[in-house]
């Protein structure tokens, strides 16, 4: 069977879970802007890696999302950020975990990838690396929004769910895939907790031979199922992208009962998405039509 390539394609998610009614519009506008920025990179001949980094940066800068500015606070009332990026062309990958005072964690993750040494740097070491590569720190308060501070003050541990993690997958004109994910993690998380969004194979994965994935939702469950790689294994045995996404989320649901969502692209640029949560705002641009399509 000949499967036509649909590249370039970019798909964005703005986190799995119930979206507060007063954030619905802002989230939609945010993922639209992110998809458009990533698309502009792709149509200008940029790489999938550049496109997913650009798209995720847009959402890190947008206080309506739980990534970069606007991220949720941990138990101590501080922001600790996780992010990762992967290049399907050569399996290059970079990630940072529990890092403070970095406005665009995805760019730091990309710098880790490009340095070509460790794949994952955490905490203080990640900050030191940022200084070495010339990524400036911001003040701790610069990333904290009033909304998240108020939420921290009133949240009870038992109903603390993270919503608003961001991610992107893209296929560029040269047929290369990339994926990136960025988050503040779960509200009231333990200081030092690193979630799936920093872990290659769990929250993020890209391999030109298979596909690209970004996950969101309960990080502990996603780690246990290595969800991004698990979804791609379903593609590898011949499932359609939509079926692969659904089977991965279905298996996680059965095994853990946790709430998650994923976006996926196969190497032909075909899209798969699945969630077991109430909502997961998504947008994509493809087929040389610059108007984003939205789905949930
Ligand atoms: N997966 C993220 C984490 O557990 C949270 C989320 O996607 O909402 O850190």
From TrEMBL:
UniProt key word Nucleus: no
Catalytic activity: L-asparagine + H2O = L-aspartate + NH4(+); Cleavage of a beta-linked Asp residue from the N-terminus of a polypeptide
Keywords linked to the UniProt accession: Autocatalytic cleavage, Hydrolase, Protease
Site feature Cleavage, where: 164-165
Keyword Transcription: no
Gene Ontology MF, one: asparaginase activity
Superkingdom, taxonomy of origin: Bacteria
Catalytic residues of the enzyme: 165 (nucleophile)
Biological process annotations from GO: proteolysis
CDD domains per UniProt: ASRGL1_like
InterPro entries, per the entry: ASRGL1_meta, Ntn_hydrolases_N, Peptidase_T2
GO CC, one annotated term: cytoplasm
One Pfam family, short name: Asparaginase_2
EC number: 3.4.19.5
UniProt: substrate binding residues: 193-196, 216-219
SUPFAM superfamilies reported in the protein's UniProt record: N-terminal nucleophile aminohydrolases (Ntn hydrolases)
Protein name: Isoaspartyl peptidase
């Amino acid at each position: 069977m000949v499967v036509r390539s649909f590249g370039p394609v970019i798909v964005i998610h703005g986190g799995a879970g119930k979206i507060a009614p007063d954030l619905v519009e802002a989230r939609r506008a945010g993922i639209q802007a992110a998809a458009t920025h990533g698309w502009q990179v792709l149509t200008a001949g940029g790489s999938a890696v550049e496109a997913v980094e650009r798209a995720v940066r847009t959402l890190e800068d947008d206080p309506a999302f739980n990534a970069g500015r606007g991220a949720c606070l941990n138990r101590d009332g501080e922001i600790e950020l996780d992010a990762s990026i992967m290049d399907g062309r050569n399996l290059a990958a970079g990630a940072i975990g529990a890092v403070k005072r970095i406005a665009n964690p995805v760019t730091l993750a990309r710098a880790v990838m490009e340095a070509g040494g460790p794949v994952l740097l955490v905490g203080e070491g990640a900050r030191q690396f940022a200084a070495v590569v010339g990524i400036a720190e911001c003040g701790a308060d610069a990333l904290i929004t009033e909304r998240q501070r108020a939420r921290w003050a009133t949240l009870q541990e038992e109903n603390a769910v993270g919503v608003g993690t961001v991610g992107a997958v893209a296929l560029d004109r040269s047929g290369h895939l990339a994926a990136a994910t960025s988050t503040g993690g779960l509200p009231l998380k333990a200081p030092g907790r690193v979630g799936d969004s920093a872990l290659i194979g769990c929250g993020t994965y890209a391999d030109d031979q298979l596909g690209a994935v970004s996950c969101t939702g309960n990080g502990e469950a996603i780690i246990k199922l290595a969800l991004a790689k698990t979804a791609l294994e379903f593609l590898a045995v011949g499932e359609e992208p939509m079926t692969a996404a659904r089977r991965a989320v279905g298996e996680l649901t059965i095994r853990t009962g946790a709430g998650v969502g994923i976006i996926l692209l196969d190497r032909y640029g075909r899209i798969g998405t699945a969630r077991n949560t109430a909502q997961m705002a998504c947008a994509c641009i493809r087929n040389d039509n610059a108007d984003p399509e939205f789905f949930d």
